[in-house]
Each structure stands twice: as structure tokens, then as C-alpha cells.
Amino acid sequence: MAFCSLHAQGKAEKAITTFSEKYPQEKIHLVFNKNSFVAGENLWLKSFVFNGYDLSSISTSMFVELYDSNKTQISKKIFPLLNGQGSGSFTLPENLKEGVYYIRAYTTWMSNFSEDFQALRQIVVYNPSSPEKVVLNDASEWTASVFPESGTLIEGFTTKCAVRLQSKGITPSEWSGYIVDSAKPDVKITSFKGFDQNVGVFSLTPKAGVQYQLIINDSKGNKKVVDLPAVSGSGINLQVSTGNEAVKFSLKSKNTIPGTLYTVLGTINNQLVFKVNSDKIFEKNFSIPAQQLVNGILQLTVFDDKENIVAQRLSFVQPGLLNIKKPEIKSVTFNESPRASNAFSIAPNENNDAYTVLVMDGSLESSEDENSLLSTLWLTGDIPSKIYTPSQYFTPNHNPEALDALLISEKWKRFDWRTIMSGTFPIISYQPQPYISYKGKVTVQGRPASNAELNLLFEMPQGGTNLSQIKTDDKGFFTLKGLIFEDAIKFSYQLNDPKIPKEQVQVIFQPDYSFVSLKKALPESNYHLVPRENNEQPTEAVKRYMATKNTQSNIDEKATLIEEVRLKARKKDKTKELNDKLSSPLFRSMNETVFDFVNDDTSAQGYMNILQWLQGRVAGLTIESNMGNYIPKLRGANINIYLDEMKIDASQINSIPISDIAMVKVIKDYFAGGFGGSSGGIAIYTKRGGITGSLSDSATSTKLKKSVMNGFDKEAPFVSPDYNDRGFKNISQDLRTTLYWSPYVETNTNESARIQFFNNDEAKNFKIIIMGFDTKGYVPIYYNEIVQ
Q1: Cross-referenced SUPFAM superfamilies, in alphabetical order (predicted)?
Q2: Domain limits of the chain?
């Protein structure tokens, strides 16, 4: 992504190149299963973590915290990320008071930068038993500010000016304004009408010596008077217009030093995409072809010959031509009858392996209505100021002029030109670790066990234990990286030295990750609390939320075994059981492909070598023949082979009969058991006696010292009723808000994903939200429509 005239690099260019290469910036979008909650309910969430305008590969874990309005932390959890996506759930305590709460989400890498760019989403939690109730703060005072394009009003230059509204509560949706000379307050120079709750725009040709004022009136009769910035007799004026074909800009000057060399730098996502410098820059109009850029915020900065900033402007590339892929929905069967079965299919996309799907009662709002995946990706993920309903700027009927006016009123704060040009960059205090990582130290009678082999016997979820060996360094330390497991896992340990009594061995474990406390204040809310009157009845909306909670509790009770009513895409399967049984935590990865030779018909018996069979079955994996041996490569690099989690040579594969193999999995990224810190590998598990290195009798481990490691927090299953099952027939009332929720609907290149859900008792239409990301085209996949 570049359109740069070639000149020697100045301080600014060198600084932005360093910042872009060494300090990539992540941002998080959160999607909730619904928009309002009741104390005692579960909250489900899905996260998309971006590095600029692409899914991030930097982080593999996400920290999520729940705060009340006093900044008291109520709960905290850690969830895994796979290719920039993650999901999880919170249980809201039954005794949670009614009010506004905050969900904070961040990664370890994001903790190195300003907290302003971490995700901090408000949710409303209702509780009719609370002494106070939450209401919309629509009586709060609002303020207005004026922002001339490029920052300055210059005498004689017609300038576009943005008017920005702000409030502790909500701003008026209908408002208008006009400009006067303060000496002639009854004469309107120009007038305008606000676009939305955020912004409006007008143009003015200022005159020297005039103090201009803006008068604003809202629909409730409130009036504000705002002084415009003083008119300057000199300076640089930058004017920008954005269209579908190009971003055009021009520069004008007044009373500046002739012959001064000016430089204009254009950056998108902190990367230099445009440069021009000339001493005749005011004689030209410039055009940046939009097809060489991507949808996103373009920052144009004008420097003088001493590299002082003289003008700046933000604009959006191709605001009227948003690059969004719409998933293909087919085989639709919708029925609005109470509790009727509904279904549709989503066609596969070869560059997107999973969708997030949410189906709601069409009469209700979703979390996407306020701040959508698109608005986080293209706006609020990088602009942290308060913006009312940012999703409106990326809907099919959005107003590009309103978005442009909004960006005139904003500044890019991911970096400060002065700071990075002085050579000052962020201090990196937190390095991302792969998934769950632990540090450990082994001592024998208080002294370090140097270069010793330690046996770890993990108690597996499906029963039995699994043996793994690690080696300490010369100070007795070791590290376990890339562990992937939920909840807590118990294990026993002993040194692999029969001469050392187990009673003398001590192992101390420390997690190699940490939650980082929130330092900044919580943002103002659009709601506030007022006393609840005696015997006051809840609103109809809150009554419905309470009924929804009771319905869900009833559904959960009817589902004696959760696995029987979980969504098809997430139900427990035999391959998962086999993987849980055979794989130790050291050989787990979020990015692995598992082949089950016990429960599936793999048609592999005709092959002499398992690597031959793997050829062409895993994306990125190739098998090459070398002197009679098959050598596996992942993305062109050699990877190790493990037999029952012990590293073997490729020549040994020929001696393993296919009939003896229980499971094979191809691990595509870092995992803790990787030999020599390698990334990726092929793990082969045999049927002989269970697994080599595993103990079927747990009695051995009971004689050893024990410890516990905590893993990722377990996500609660989202349970939906299946009204074809008689067990759900006697549910008296169904007013569910969310009819279907799945953060991962997997697809493949050959089959469509089938979605089935049952209506509640009242819905006459359905709000269907489908999200994904095309990793090849760097394009969001998005669908948010009401259907019936």
C-alpha cells in the first residue's frame, strides 16, 4: 500500500517507519449475545482482534474484565485467540445491583500502549430488587466546539468547519446552527443543520478583525453560543475532498516565507502511503488514487522545511465505496409461528474458515446497532473519543459527508509526530507469550536442580495420566509455553533420577502472564441512576428481560445433559474425546488439524506410510521424498515428527503400520512440546496399550507430589431449545431475546454451514447477524439485516 514520491528520508519518515515496523497496534471489537442483561444471567461475547485493518497474529490470549461504575472489578477471565478471534462468557452475579457496567478487553501487547485504545464497552444490567434504577440521561447539558479544516481560519480562504457536540449524557438528535459577526448578532452569515448527534458542517470565508460566533439551537429549545477561533492573517490552509476514485487535496498559503520547501506525508494505519515535497506546492492540486489504498483513515500532515507541523487533516478513503463482502445465504426456511423451526445455510468462503452467527428477535436491538464490527475496524478502534452510534457511518445508507465532518473534528492519537521524531518511542514492558505459559523452578533440598530431567504426570480430563519430560537450565529453571487447556489441570512430578528421594524435590510454578490493572477513569455513560419509588413496577422492557431470564433457566433445567442441546457446531464429539485422552497439555494448539483413525473411516489402510496419506489433506503441509524417506514441511519449512509425543526420525515412520495408529494431528504453530522451540509438527499416536509414555493406572501418580496449573477460563455452553424434543414442550412462556448464538460456525470449501433455530412466542421477524473476515483480501464479511 504505497504511493510515494521518492526523496531522501527526513526525521518524520524515519520515525514513522520505525513506529510502524516495531510498534504494531492492536484493537478489539466485542460482540455480545444481546444488548441488555439481568442480574444472574450469562453474558456471551465474541472478540475480533485486529492489527490495523487485518486480523492480528500478535496475540494468542485476551484478558477480559468486568467493572461496576465505581471501577470495582467484579470478575476477570482469560480466553484464547485463534487467528485473531476468541470467545468467552461471564456469569453476572444474582446480587448485582442495577446499573451501568463496563467490559474491558485487552491483550498483553496492548498493555504497552495507551489504555484509550483498549476495548471498554458499556452494558446495562437490570435488577428490579435494587433501590435505584437506571434511566437514560437525556437532560444532561451538552457542549459544542468548532474545528476549521486543517486547524486554522485564515483571512480570505473559504474554509469548511466541523461542529462537534459532546455531553455526559446524550446529545440532541435534531439541532441546527448559524454564524454571525459578534458585532452584528442579528445578521446570519450562513446557517446549517446538524447531520446527527455528533456533528454538523458549514463553510465560511473569514475576514480580518471579525470575531465570529456560532449559535446552536436544539429541538428542546436549548441554545448555545460558541466563539470561533480567531482569524489569522497568515498560515497554511489544507483542503481535502474524498471520493470513490481518489483523495484530492490542495494547499494555499498567506503571508508565508517564499521559497519554503514543504512536505506532505500521508499515513494509513501508521504506515507511510504518500509523500510529496516541493517549494511550489501551492501551485498544484494533488490526487492520491484510491485503488492504491484501502478503506481506512488517511492522515495528511504538512511540514515546513524545519519539520514543524503547519497543517493536519484526517479523511476516510473511499467513504462511498466500502469494501465489504456479504455472505451468501441460501436454502432459507423462515416461519414466524410461535416456536416454529427456522433454518438457512451460509455458503463457504475459501478465505474464511468460520463465521460468527447471531439471530435475535427482530424487534430488539443488538450490540452491533451501536458500535459494529465495521465501525470498530474503520473508526472507533483508532479514534477513542466519545462518538454516538458510530455504526451509522458504515451502514448501506450512510452519509459520507457526515463521516468526513466527524474526522475534521478529530486527531490521530496512535502516535505523536513530535514525540517519535525526537526518538522517543513506547517502552515495551509486556511481551506476548504463546497462549498459556508458565515458569518453573526445581530445587532439591533448597538447591537448584541444574540441567535435570523432570517428569510431569498430567491427570487427563478423560481419565488416566500422561507423562511429559522437560529439562531445567543450569539454575534449575524451565518454561512451559503454548499450553492450551481450560480450567485447572492437576499434575504430579518427580526428577528422573532414582537416587534423589521425591520428598527432597520441590517445584514452584509461576504463570508467565498477568492481568494489568486499569489506571484511567471509566468513561461517562449515557445512563444514570435515580431512586426507585416504593412498589414501582418494572417497565415492560425490563419485565420481558426478566421473563427471558426465567425462560432460559427453565430451558437449562430441561437440558439434563448440556451436550444434547448444544448447537451442532459445538457439540461434543468422539474425535474431541480421543484428542483429550491422548494429547498432553504440551501437545495442544489452537491451530491444529486432527485425524481420527479410531472413529472415522480414513481410507488410509492402502498406504504404506502415514505421511503419504497426509499429502494434500492439510493446507500448507507438503510431503517431500528424500532418499527413500518422506519429509514433512509446513509452509516450506521442515517440521518435526513425534510418536506418542517423543521426537523420532523420518526414517522410523516406515516401521509404523497404519493399523496401529489411533490419531494423527498436524500442529501448525508453536506448542509447548515442540523440540528445540520449533513451530509446528506432526504428532502420531498409537493404539498399542493406550499411548507410549502414558500411565493407565493413576496409582503411580498418587505417590508423588502434586500441583495445579490454571488454564483458560471455560466458556459456558449456550443452550437453545429444540422444540422437536418433547422435553421442551411444557415450557410455559418463551420470550427469548437471542434465538441463536455461535461464535464459531465452521465451514469448509465444499459444504455450506447449516443454521437452525426455533422461534420464541412473539417474534414476527428475525435479526440475522453474520460476521467473518476474508484473510486474503483483508476484507470484513458482514451481514446485519432483519428478515421475515
Answers
A1: Porins
A2: 436-511
